[in-house]
């Protein structure tokens, strides 16, 4: 709710102030240099173009070597693009509501369309349908729009982890079958990873597909290597070209999974806060680590830091 | 099984009468025609039995009109979810027959390990045939679109197992 935001500092405000005080080193630092360096709160690939939103909005057509500033529709907390619709960009706004661009972020249309007031902290477009959008309203729940953001309806309350409701800090539609006639939506929260089928049947842990069989037959459970327990999952990306491949940004680094999130390994250590993957090339990854934007073209084996544009 | 229904079943009432009874009864209209469960077709009598069993065992939470609990998309203070509708406004029709059966017999944690919910397990309360009848009754109330969707989900589920 709006009023409580004014009294209670939001997580972001908290992060910013703590980082400014330099008190805790693992928190993402808000840089003072160019907006592309340290202030990327969110990244998204729109085809080959990399969008970066933080204090403002900018786009790079050369993997972050140079940037063009764009007019931001507001303070953007989350971005979504779609592999099937180049130029389509959807932005979740700190002041509430969602903005939509069809020209790669040059011009925007904003609206509420039935969304309640409150920060839109995370946003995703459905992997199989660019008109189907999901938005997480801070302190409220998960909303969905079937008409590209014109009208919204409540889909589901927030996930419940470690005895409390948790805000999705990041959402991603993952093109893996649920067995319920649809695909999964994964969410990162301040205490870990969770997911919900797109029927919104229920939030649940990420478990191996054959965990049920093991439960029934009493056979050994398949191997699991979850993300570090209790650590915030600040950003998630799913490679549309290889949907079982997921990336996660955590304060401990960038993590990757090759099996839809059951087994994870750390690709790079560092205070990661954002990760994005190219829609057509799962080897092409962008991440904010510490206060630097990093690009990899080989699936995370090597990284190249980008200075400010 | 309710004695009254045993009687009816024993009396072997005709399909026509059962359908008429379905139509008269308050709840949503059931269209028994073509309803199957786990691949088996059900008779209008079985679906009539399912309707009765639904009223006795499920309606208190899922609603006499299958409408679910109020505000069912919002968590209760204890963190659990309310009972969702079983009609087309809910998500029951996204589950394969086998999954619906397992949830009803053994609770939601039987399909989502570790999941906590207020959905009771009906094992020992309802027989397998009775569970099939209740779920077939629920299916019989769905519009064509939901029926087709769920039939596909069930078919794919069968192919995988």
Task: Explain the overall architecture.
The complex is a heterodimer of chains A (309) and B (161). Helix content of chain A is 9%, strand content 40%. Chain A has helices at residues 2-7, 11-21, 35-38, 211-217, and strands at 42-46, 49-53, 57-60, 68-70, 76-81, 89-93, 98-101, 109-111, 120-126, 129-137, 141-145, 153-157, 160-161, 164-165, 170-177, 183-189, 192-197, 235-238, 246-250, 253-257, 264-269, 272-277, 285-289, 292-296, 304-306. In chain A, the strands form seven sheets. A four-stranded antiparallel beta sheet of chain A has the order 1-2-3-4, with no helix packed on it. Chain A has a four-stranded antiparallel beta sheet with strand order 5-6-7-8, with no helix packed on it. A four-stranded antiparallel beta sheet of chain A has the order 9-10-11-12, with no helix packed on it. In chain A, a hairpin with a 3-residue loop joins strand 10 (129-137) and strand 11. Chain B has a single domain (3-157), classed as Cytochrome c-like domain (Cytochrome Bc1 Complex, Chain D, domain 2, Orthogonal Bundle), CATH 1.10.760.10. Helix content of chain B is 48%, strand content 2%. Chain B has helices at 3-11, 15-24, 44-57, 59-62, 97-106, 128-140, 144-160, and strands spanning 36-37, 40-41. The longest helix of chain B is centred in the last third of the chain and has 17 residues, at 144-160. The chains are: A mainly beta (309), B mainly alpha (161). Chain A binds chain B through residues 141, 154-158, 160, 163-165, 179-182, 197, 199-202, 204-205, 207, 211-212, 215, and chain B through 73-75, 79, 81, 91, 94-96, 99, 108, 111-115, 117, 149-150, 152-153, 156-157, 160.
């Amino acid at each position: 709710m709006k009023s409580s935001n004014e009294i209670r500092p939001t997580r972001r405000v908290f992060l910013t102030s703590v980082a400014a005080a330099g008190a805790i080193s693992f928190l993402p630092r808000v840089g003072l240099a160019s907006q592309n360096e340290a202030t990327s709160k969110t990244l998204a690939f729109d085809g080959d173009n990399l969008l970066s939103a933080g204090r403002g909005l900018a786009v790079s057509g050369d993997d972050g070597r140079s940037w063009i500033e764009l007019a931001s529709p507001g303070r953007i907390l989350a971005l979504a693009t779609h592999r099937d619709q180049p130029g389509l960009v959807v932005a979740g706004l700190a002041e509430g509501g969602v903005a939509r661009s069809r020209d790669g972020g040059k011009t925007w249309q904003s609206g509420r369309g039935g969304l309640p007031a409150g920060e839109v902290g995370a946003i995703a477009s459905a992997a199989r349908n660019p008109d189907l959008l999901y938005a997480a309203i801070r302190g409220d729940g998960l909303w969905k729009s079937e008409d590209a953001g014109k009208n919204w309806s409540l889909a589901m309350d927030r996930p419940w982890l470690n005895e409390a409701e948790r805000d999705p800090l990041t959402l991603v539609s993952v093109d893996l079958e649920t067995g319920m006639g649809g695909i999964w939506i994964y969410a990162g929260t301040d205490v870990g990873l969770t997911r919900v089928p797109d029927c919104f049947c229920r939030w649940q842990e990420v478990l191996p597909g054959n965990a049920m069989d093991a439960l029934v037959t009493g056979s050994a459970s398949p191997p699991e290597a979850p993300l570090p327990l209790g650590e915030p999952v600040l950003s998630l990306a799913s490679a549309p070209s290889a949907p079982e491949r997921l990336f996660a940004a955590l304060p401990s680094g960038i993590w990757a999974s090759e099996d839809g999130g059951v087994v994870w390994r750390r690709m790079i250590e560092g205070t990661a806060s954002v990760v994005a993957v190219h829609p057509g090339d799962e080897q092409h990854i962008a991440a904010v680590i510490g206060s630097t934007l990093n690009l990899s073209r080989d699936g995370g084996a090597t990284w190249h830091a980008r200075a400010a544009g | 099984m309710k004695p009254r229904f045993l009687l009816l079943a024993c009396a072997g009432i005709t399909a026509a009468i059962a359908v008429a009874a379905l139509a008269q009864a308050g709840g949503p209209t059931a269209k028994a025609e073509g309803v199957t469960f786990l691949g088996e077709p059900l008779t209008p009598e079985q679906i009539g039995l399912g309707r009765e069993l639904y009223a006795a065992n499920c309606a208190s939470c899922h609603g006499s009109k299958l409408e679910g609990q109020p505000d069912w998309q919002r968590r209760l203070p204890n963190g659990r979810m309310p009972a969702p509708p079983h009609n087309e406004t809910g998500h029951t029709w996204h589950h394969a027959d086998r999954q619906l059966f397992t949830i009803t017999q053994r609770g939601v944690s039987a399909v989502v390990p570790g999941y906590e919910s207020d959905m009771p397990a009906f094992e020992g309360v309802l027989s397998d045939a009775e569970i099939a009848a209740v779920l077939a009754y629920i299916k019989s109330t769905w519009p064509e679109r939901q029926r087709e969707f769920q039939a596909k989900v069930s078919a794919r589920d069968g192919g995988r197992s």
